[in-house]
Structures are given as C-alpha cells and as structure tokens.
Design a protein that fits this description.
heterodimer; A: alpha/beta; Rossmann fold; six-stranded parallel β-sheet; 34% helix; globular; B: mainly alpha; Na+/H+ antiporter like fold; 2 domains; 30 helices; elongated
Chain lengths: 198, 639
C-alpha cells in the first residue's frame, strides 16, 4: 500500500463540473489523504511546517488543478514556492522528497487537438507542464505522465472522473505500471497502464 | 494683599511685554526677561521692593527645572554619562577655579579669597543654558549633551563647595554665627558630624526609596479621583516637599528634586507630572531672570564701568578657554565644541548664592560682593548674545549636511498611542512585536498597572490635553494612534492635532459609521471602525458555516468590505453634521444607490459579479473564437 496525498486546487470549484466530478469520486476512496488547498488556505497563509510534514508522510503526491494560462492556479504556485524550499525539496540537504512520486491531474478548456504544433495552442500540453516536470526532477522524484481531461467545458466528465478513481486506487494499491506511466505522453481514463490488465 | 497683587501684575506684565519681542528678534526668552527686569527696576526701587528676597523665591524655578531634567534622564543613562560628568564637569570646575584663583593671586589677593572667587565664577548658569539649549533645539547634539553634563556636575558640586567655603574663612575674623544666613531651620545644625552625615544619607535614601515605592500608589490613588487640580497640587507638594527635606538636611534642593526626577523617569506618571510642573517652572524662572535684571547696581556699574566690563570679559574668556580645551580633549566635533565653549562661559545663579554665603562666612570682604554680583549678572546678560553669535557666525561655517548625522540622537519615540484599551492595546502589541518603541498614554491607572505587570510601560494622563501630548513628544511624532474610548474625545483630539501638528499621521478609532463622517470632517483620513473587521469575520464564518467554500467566503467578504468602504467614502463627502441623515436628500439618494445590500447580492448583482468574475470559465464560443483567430493568422502568415 502506497501512502497517497491528493491535493485539489480550484479557486471556484462551483464553476468547474469536471473538477467537482473528480472530487466526488476521490471522496469515495479510502486510504487517501485529501486536501482542498483553497479551502485550507483561503487567505494564502500557508502553514509550511504542516505542509512539509504532510509531504514527508506520503509516497505519492497528486496535484489536481485546472490549467489557467498554461500553468497552475496562483495558490498552487504559492504553495510550491513556500513549501518546496531549499534544504527540503532541493539544494543542500534537500532530499526529503527523494524517491516519492508526483502526478498531475489537469483539466483544460481547449480540445486535445489544440495542444499540438498544428493546433491553435501551438505547443504540446507536456511543453506547458515542463516546469512541474523539472521541479520533480530537481527534487529527485518520479514524474508520471499527467492525467488529462481536454475540452473540459464541453464534455461529460463522468468517465474521466471514474478513471481518476481507478488511477488513484491503482497507485494506492501499487497496481500501476509506473515505468509505463513515466514514459507515456499523457494518461487518460482509457489508457491507464494497470498491472495485470492488458 | 494689594501690594502682592501689584507686584504680581508688574512682573507678569513686564514679562508679557518683553519676552515676545525678544523671541521675535531671535534673542531668546532669557534676554527678554532680563530686559524686562531692568526696565522694571526703577519702579521696584520706587516701591521699595526687596528684589533679593523675590529672587530667593524665584530660585525655586531652578529646583523645578532640575526635577524635569531628572525625569528626562533614566538612571541607566546617568550611569552612561558618568565619564563625562566627572571628566568634563570635574575638569571644568577644577580648571576654571585654578585659572581664576591664580589670576586673583597674581593681582595680590589672599589665596583664600582667590580660591573662593574661583569657585564662585566656575559655576555656569543652569537656568539660562538649559532654557536656551531647549528653546533652540541644541540639547540633543553633542555640545548640548556635554554642556548638560557639566551643568549637572556643577549642581552636584555646589554641595561640597558649600561645605568647603567656611573653612576658607580668614583667621581672626569671627566665625559665622546665627546671623540669619543659611537655612533658617535645620535638622543637622546642632548634632555631631557623623550624625549629620547619617541624617543626610537617610534623607537621600528616603527620596530615592519614596520615589520608587511610594509615588506610584499615591499617584494612582489621586488619579482615581479624576480631579486635575488635585493631581497638580500633589505634584507641587511632592516637589516642594523634597526641596524642603533637602534644605532641612543642608543639601541643595535642586539636587534632591533632580534625584526624585531620575527615580520617576520610568514612571507612568512622568508625562503628567511634566505637564503639571512645567508652567510653574517657566513662570518662576522668568521671575528669576527678571529679578537678576532688576538687581543690577547701575550706580556701581557707571562708576567703574571699564573695570567691571573688563573683568567680566576676562572671566568669560578664561571660562571659554578652559571649556574649549576640554572640548578638544573630549573629542567634540565641529561646531559643537564652540557651542560648549561659548554656551557655558557665563557665571551662574549659584554664583549669587555662593557669594552671599562666602560673605556671611567672612571669607569675602563685604565690599567685594556687589562687584562680583555685577560681573555674574553681566556675563549672564551677554550669554544670549554668545548663543546668537554661535548660531549666526560659527555654526554656518561648520554646518555641512553631514554634520547632522554626527548628532547623538537621544531616545525618541515617534509613535504615540492615545488610549491603551481593547483597541489601542492591540495596536501597541503589534508595534512592539515588530520592534517599534511606543509612548502609551492612558487615563486609567488600573489599566496602566495591569500593563506594568506584563512589562509594558505607559504614561498616566488625559491624552486629549494638548500639553500632555506635547510632553509625550507630539512635536516630533511620526504617528499617532487615536484610540480613546470616548468618540467625542477622539474627535476633539483629531481636530487639535490636525490643525496644530499637520505632519503627524493619525490612525483613528471610529465608533460607528456616523463617527467616521465626523472624524473625516475633523481632518482624519486613516479611520478604522472599531468593530467592523471583527463583524466582517463573523459574517465570513457564517458563510462558511452555511457550507460556502472557504475561498469563496473569503472573496465574498472582501468584496463586501470594498463595497462598504466605497459607500462610506462617498457618503462622507455628502454627509452634513448640521442635517440628520434622514433629512439630507443628497445623502439618502446616494445611500440608496450604494448600500442596498440585498440588491448587491442578488444574482447578477454587482456584488456577486465582482467576486465571480475572475473564475467564470470561458464559453465554447470563446474557445472557438480563439481557434479561428489563431488558425486564420497562420493561414495569412506567408511563412
């Protein structure tokens, strides 16, 4: 059993169907620590010691957020800036997160085909997420392919939300093929590399 | 009775007439009083007034001044000054005495007489110098501090000198009997030397112990009565009592009150005492200077004009020489050593005291006293001129901009907190926690006691009184927190400070919305309602308790605060104290527009719209528009 820490960060959850559907599924899961970052710190007064203790006590860290202007919402950045400090996540003696796993779960407004050299977003989604990838690398963590829901404004999120539950459950029970999850481009509900199912 | 009223009127009127003119001409108040005294002297002679006895009475102003000076000096700082006190002060007295006495011996006077004259002329005028330094704002500089050290040493040195003078009596002349000089009552006159020493030490211990342990309960008890004049009476009785005790044991009353002042320097009643005693000090000192002017023996002066003028200038030159050498030796910088040298070059009021004492002890021949008194008086009268010379001629030569940095800034608390209750107390704690130093004023003795147990020092007093604000340093203050309980008092204070000290930033506690309008009209701009923020937090908790997401609750309450403060600001512009709000059509119209909270909150209303704006997801049409624009651009791009 891996110890799983799930962060959800949406500044206006009531306006996001996809993220709400994902949260509903996650709440039904057992053995997972769940944190709503905007509910925990509505005034941005992040408790660094508490957050670092949380990170230390878990093996897999999942960050779920909507993609805003090709990045995370402001509080997630604030959280990274404050909690992932040198001497903890990087720098001298900064190996406290070494060997842990980081997974992003992002929703995008644009359709999948927009995130390509030919699409109107001009770049692959993974290109926009390279800051997070490098963050994990500097912290000596494993960075899995992000679990992505494109076109979140138009599509029914039910299957994506259920798949998110399957993904987290598999991570918790160590039934996810991590090597495959590291090497693929993105994860979606119908392409999860589960061990024992082919 | 009518004699007394006539005299009081004469002195007051002369002072009122002369001092403003002298200050306007830049001569300083001391010279103004001296001139008033000279102008008054023919009238006083006509009325056969005993000027010298009035002068003895007025010397009490010096006693009060030293009490106030003592209050400004914490024991710790006094200890820090010890090197300067003994070094500068001791060498000044010793050097000047030696120089003057040596000159007298050269002119053929007996060595005992010479030594007495040296000691008499070594004294400088505490009253003139401290008053002038204070008025001209020179006290804080290096030269001012050095002058202060020397004056303080002289005040203390008077005591051993008074003991020494009788020993200089010329053999053969019979010793001083009970001929009316010296203290009229004494606890130490008829007892053995060691007993006298014991009584004297006991009296000093009584002043220190009483100041430390008795004053606080006493002043607290008086403060509870909330009667201004009783507090003033207590303060006066306190100072007079100490002076009396010191006189009884044969010590300088000035020294005693100075000690009491030092003991009370950390007391919460310090500023209240200061503002109560200060008017009396000012009036008595003024009277003292007028009597100095009035006592000038013009007949003698005209007879021996050149001799006396020459002697005066010689004495001042000798004193200035000693002081300048010391100034160089003790490393005073730039213009400061000249301030030190010129400022203390006069002889002082203690000179009068020592002269009459020396005559009565048969140390000095009686014929010499008028000449000495004239020299002392003339040197005192020349002092304001020397200060003007320093300011106009010497300082400009040295005053480069960097000179200011060299000034030693003594302790300053540019933050004043008026009212240390539920509101001001929090502000004070936050400021202290951030490392700022504050001056707290409160009129509740109980509250101050409670603070003291937690190690916070506050001062007792009614903060709405301008003189107390002045004593607390409103003139140099950067920030004033107006946080009294009574809304009307806060308003009065804002009004006063806004008009008299416009440089001070005020943060003002408001009782409610209407009080905000009144404070705004009184000149306050940084107004914080006392329960508004806590009520908003309660409202936010209510949102959360009802299941609203905490971040939405936060944004909604922020939007509410913005809307409310905007409305408050707009309404303050149209609010008219003369018309009740309900009868002010402009106010009613604006209030309807701005403050209908239900409308604000209605779906699609301004309030919701403002909070939701940033997080409303784009519509599918938005995404489509982006796609078309981007791909269209590419099609048009020749590359």
């Amino acid at each position: 059993m891996a110890r799983l820490l799930h962060y959800a960060a949406h500044p206006a959850p009531s306006s996001s169907q996809a993220n709400r559907a994902m949260l509903r599924v996650v709440r039904g899961l057992e053995g997972i620590t769940q944190v709503d970052l905007y509910a925990e710190y509505p005034r941005y007064d992040i408790d660094i010691a508490e957050e670092q203790a949380r990170l230390l006590a878990h093996d897999v860290i999942v960050l779920q957020f909507p993609l805003f202007w090709y990045s995370c919402p402001a509080l997630v950045k604030e959280w990274l800036d404050l909690v992932w400090e040198h001497g903890f996540a990087y720098g001298q003696g900064g190996d406290k997160l070494k060997g842990k796993t980081l997974l992003l779960a992002v929703t995008t407004g644009g359709p999948q085909e927009a995130y390509s050299a030919e699409g109107y977003q001009h770049f692959e989604l993974r290109t926009f997420l390279t800051p997070f990838e490098q963050t994990a690398r500097l912290a000596q963590m494993r960075f899995l392919a992000p679990y992505v829901f494109h076109g979140a404004l138009k599509r029914d999120p039910a299957a994506h939300a259920l798949g998110f539950g399957t993904l987290l459950g598999a991570l918790r029970d160590e039934r996810l093929d991590l090597r495959a999850a590291e090497t693929t481009d993105i994860l979606t509900h119908d392409t999860l590399p589960l061990i024992g199912i082919n | 009775m009518s004699d007394f009223l006539l005299l009081a009127f004469l002195f007051l009127a002369a002072g009122v007439a002369a001092v403003p003119i002298a200050t306007a001409l830049g001569l300083g108040s001391v010279l103004g009083y001296l001139i008033a005294g000279i102008a008054l002297s023919p009238v006083l002679t006509l009325l056969e007034v005993d000027v010298v006895s009035i002068q003895h009475f007025a010397e009490f102003g010096v006693v009060m001044m030293l009490f106030l000076v003592g209050q400004e000096l914490e024991p710790k700082r006094l200890w820090e000054l010890r090197n300067r006190l003994l070094g500068l002060g001791g060498l000044q007295v010793a050097g000047t005495t030696a120089l003057v006495a040596g000159a007298c011996i050269v002119f053929g006077l007996d060595w005992r007489i010479s030594l007495a004259i040296g000691l008499i002329l070594a004294m400088s005028s505490t009253a003139i110098v401290l008053q002038t330094l204070g008025e001209k704002g020179l006290m804080r500089g290096d030269g001012g501090q050095a002058s202060f050290s020397v004056l303080l040493f002289q005040d203390i040195a008077v005591i051993p000198i008074l003991a020494l003078v009788p020993l200089l009596a010329i053999p053969g002349a019979h010793h001083a009997g009970e001929d009316g000089h010296g203290p009229s009552m004494s606890l130490v006159a008829d007892i053995e030397g060691w007993q006298a020493a014991l009584v004297t030490a006991g009296a000093i211990a009584l002043v220190i112990a009483g100041g430390m342990f008795l004053t606080r309960p006493l002043f607290r008890y008086i403060a509870k009565a909330r009667l201004r004049e009783i507090f003033v009476a207590t303060a006066l009785a306190f100072v007079v009592g100490i002076a009396l005790l010191m006189t009884l044991v044969g010590l300088s009353p000035a020294l005693g009150t100075f000690l009491a002042g030092v003991v009370l320097a950390n007391s919460e009643y310090r500023h209240e005492l200061e503002s109560d005693i200060d008017p009396f000090r000012g009036l008595l000192l003024g009277l003292f200077f007028m009597t100095v002017g009035a006592a000038i023996n013009f007949a003698l002066l005209w007879d021996e004009l050149f001799l006396i003028l020459g002697l005066t200038i010689a004495v001042m030159a000798a004193k200035a020489l000693v002081l300048l050498i010391l100034g160089f030796g003790f490393g005073l910088r730039g213009s400061q050593k000249y301030l030190f040298g010129l400022g203390l070059a006069q002889a002082g009021e203690f000179g009068f005291v020592l002269t009459s004492f020396a005559v009565s002890n048969f140390v000095l021949p009686e014929t010499m006293a008028p000449t000495l008194n004239l020299i002392i008086t003339l040197s005192m009268m020349l002092t304001p001129g020397l200060f003007i010379f320093y300011e106009r001629v010497i300082r400009p030569r040295f005053d480069r901009p960097t000179d200011r940095d060299d000034d030693e800034i003594t302790e300053q608390h540019p933050i004043i907190i008026a009212g240390h209750g539920r509101y001001g107390g929090i502000v004070n704690r936050m400021l202290l926690a951030a490392g700022y130093r504050t001056t707290v004023l409160d009129h509740s003795a109980g509250q101050l006691d409670m603070l003291r147990t937690f190690g916070i020092n506050g001062f007792y007093g009614d903060a709405t009184r301008p003189d107390l604000l002045t004593a607390a340093g409103i003139g140099e203050a950067k920030l004033l927190i107006v946080a009294l309980d009574d809304p009307d008092q806060n308003e009065a204070m804002v009004h006063y400070v806004h008009h008299n000290h416009p440089h001070v930033h005020m943060i003002v506690r408001a009782h409610d919305r209407r009080h905000v309008y009144r404070l705004y009209q009184a000149g306050a701009r940084d107004i914080i309602r006392e329960t508004f923020d806590s009520s908003v937090r309660a409202g936010r908790s209510a949102y959360e308790a009802l299941g609203m997401h905490p971040f939405e609750a936060e944004r909604l309450s922020r939007a509410f605060v913005d809307a409310d403060r905007h409305a408050l600001y707009e309404l303050a512009q149209v609010w008219d104290p003369a018309i009740p709000e309900t009868e002010n059509p402009e106010y009613i119209k604006l209030a309807r527009e701005l403050m209908t909270d239900i409308e604000l909150g209605a779906s699609g209303g301004a309030f919701r719209e403002r909070t939701e704006r940033g997080w409303t997801p784009p519509l599918p049409q938005d995404t489509e528009a982006d796609r078309q624009r981007q791909t269209g651009q590419r099609a048009a791009d020749p590359r």
